[in-house]
Amino acid sequence: MCLMSAALELHGVGVTYATRRGQIEALSAVDLKIEQGEFVAVLGPSGCGKSTALKLAAGLLPATSGRISVAGRPVAGPSRQAGVVFQKPNLLPWKTVLNNVLLPARTLGLPMAAARVRARELLELVGLGAFADDYPFELSGGMQQRVGIARMLLHDPELLLMDEPFAALDALSREALTLELQRIWSQQRKSVLFITHSIQEAVFLADRVLVMSSRPGRIVEDKVIDLPRPRTLETLADDRFTALCQHFRRHFSHA
Fold this sequence. Notes:
The protein is α/β, with parallel strands linked by helices. It has eight helices and ten strands. Helix 4 (112-125) packs across helix 5 (141-153) and helix 7 packs across helix 8 (239-249).
């Protein structure tokens, strides 16, 4: 029987930076595993290496030590295996929404006719089908981030890497996009590594929540979130949800 490889694995991964003040150890002996179709959120204090771990998975940064693989294949640089969304969608202002979504097709040399069909399908998926010919400045911040999510999905990556994608949004937009992301994930069933500072966001979205220590970052807790899906706004008032949030908050209280 052939066993399916994990979507993402980090084994004994460490990262050390050279700075004017000497060597800084950002990550130390990080072991992380995401199964196919699993949504994993990572919490941790600022500067603990959360974003560094994501950049390693994306192939945007080399590890100093350890091994990294996506779907069983070693990560040696950026590839089609992973799609990335950062805090800001970084849309090109002179291109329409549709053409922004199509950027990976041009970069990766995908057949353009098929890519256009998929781009329009993805804009429908994120609720922006009617805005394909608009420009980024005509959209709200939340709508722009939806364009970024559609762009990430265009080349059908095996792993979605999301680095605080809703951090710059107001509270209501953030709540709406959290629900939207859950809906998209439930339809696409991609594997997700989701970086956030929001305990509620992590508990609401994830199958598992990992907690990282202060620098050098290590995984200090790996907890299954056993709340039923789909999760709704009523979930936020559930006693189990509240208890989980309180559990994780203890990692960050320094009273």
